[in-house]
Each structure stands twice: as structure tokens, then as C-alpha cells.
Write a structure and sequence with these properties.
Layout (H helix, E strand, L loop, with lengths): L1 E8 L1 H18 L4 E8 L3 H8 L5 E13 L2 E10 L9 E9 L3 H11 L5 E9 L12 E5 L5 E2 L15 E7 L7
Parallel strand pairs: 2-3, 2-5, 5-6, 6-7
Antiparallel strand pairs: 1-9, 3-4, 8-9
Helix pairs in contact: 1-2
The structure holds inosinic acid (IMP) and magnesium ion.
Inosinic acid (IMP) binds next to β3, β5, α3 and β8.
Length: 180
């Protein structure tokens, strides 16, 4: 199978989207201490860009959840890394690269709520609502995209393509027909 990538969101469009999200979050959380809960690994580049545009006191936490094998959702979510410090009484903002079926984020929200935070909200760079199986809406969503598998700007396909500065749709080209 031959994979090819098709440009979907340019680096400058990503910059505009991230700046807009930061502006809205700055207005919402002004004067508060905000605990980012960055979902590894796909959200690291987004989170790094976003947090440098936030004005309030920001604390960085990571969570890692496995729900994917290649391009297929396995349906189950397993945490392989949890934050070291308690989120009790904190304002928590879950930072996601993409909301797809919503299973990962739903499981993360359940875990965070069990910590008794002061508040919890979700910020996602990309949203694919067409594929949602959980009733879940991001509080802050950068860009709604159609049902494409996307890579770049932190997003991977089997760990590849994360370094790309733009976002691409990954396509499987049909096998070339051999000459008769
Ligand atoms: P969900 O649990 O189905 O919402 O999927 C969440 C996770 O699956 C995301 O945080 C991504 O890591 C991964 N994922 C979902 N869609 C894509 C995609 O189009 N490209 C790369 N990773 C994706
Ligand atoms: Mg991934």
C-alpha cells in the first residue's frame, strides 16, 4: 500500500487558529492559575505553541492514553501515564490534538472529574464530529474537519509525520495497474 499526504491546514492557518484559541482562553481564565493537561503524544506541539501565548499562571501536566492502533480506533482507552500532582481544586484544561470518536477525551474527563477539580474544560486543535461515538463537545475547538485521517503538527500515523509543520490528510493510493 502506498501512502501519500495532501495539504489540509497550512502553517500560517495553524498559527492563526492557535492565536485565536489563546485569546479566548486568556479572556476566560484571566487572573486564575490554569493547569494544562496535555494529552501525549500528539498534542505536544500544539500545547507548546498555545501555552506561550497564554497570559495567566500556567502549570503543565501530561497524560497518556492509548486508544489507537494505526488508523483504527480500538474502542478501549488505557492510561499509560498520569499526572504526578493532584488536580484537586485546580482549573484544568485538557489539551487535545484531535477529537475523533471522543472515547479518549471522555475517559480523560471521567478521570479528571474523579480528582475533584475546581473546573475542567477541553481545548482541541482539530475536531472530527462526524466520527463521534461519545456525546462530547470541546469547550474550545480550533478547526472542524471532515472525516480524514490527518498527520503533521504532532499528529502521527504509526509514529510517522509528527514533525511536519503543516497538517496533511493521509491517503492510500490504489495500487498502480500493471501494463497489459
Ligand atoms: P478518539 O478517542 O477516537 O477521539 O481519538 C483520540 C486520539 O486518536 C487523538 O488524540 C489522536 O491521538 C488519535 N487520532 C484520532 N484521529 C486521528 C487522525 O486523524 N490522525 C492522527 N491521530 C488521530
Ligand atoms: Mg496518535
Amino acid at each position: 500500500m502506498h501512502l501519500s499526504v495532501k495539504p489540509l491546514v497550512s502553517a500560517s492557518a495553524i498559527r492563526r487558529i492557535v492565536s485565536h484559541l489563546a485569546h479566548v482562553i486568556n479572556c476566560e481564565y484571566e487572573g486564575r492559575e490554569l493547569h494544562l493537561l496535555v494529552v501525549l503524544k500528539g498534542s505536544v506541539i500544539f500545547a507548546a505553541d498555545l501555552m506561550r501565548q497564554l497570559d495567566m499562571d500556567v502549570r503543565l501536566n501530561f497524560i497518556r492514553a492509548r486508544s489507537y492502533d494505526g488508523r483504527t480506533s480500538t474502542g478501549s482507552v488505557e492510561f499509560t501515564l498520569l499526572p504526578e500532582s493532584s488536580l484537586q481544586g485546580k482549573h484544568v484544561l485538557v489539551v487535545e490534538d484531535i477529537l475523533d470518536t471522543g472515547r479518549t477525551c471522555a475517559a480523560i474527563l471521567k478521570w479528571v472529574r474523579a480528582q475533584s477539580p475546581a473546573s475542567v474544560a477541553v481545548c482541541t486543535l482539530l475536531d472530527k464530529p462526524e466520527r463521534r461515538v461519545k456525546r462530547l463537545k470541546a469547550d474550545y475547538a480550533g478547526l472542524v474537519i471532515p472525516d480524514h485521517f490527518v498527520v503533521g503538527y504532532g499528529l502521527d500515523y504509526n509514529e510517522r509525520y509528527r514533525r511536519l509543520p503543516e497538517i496533511y490528510a493521509l491517503e492510500c493510493d490504489p495500487p498502480k495497474s500493471s501494463p497489459a
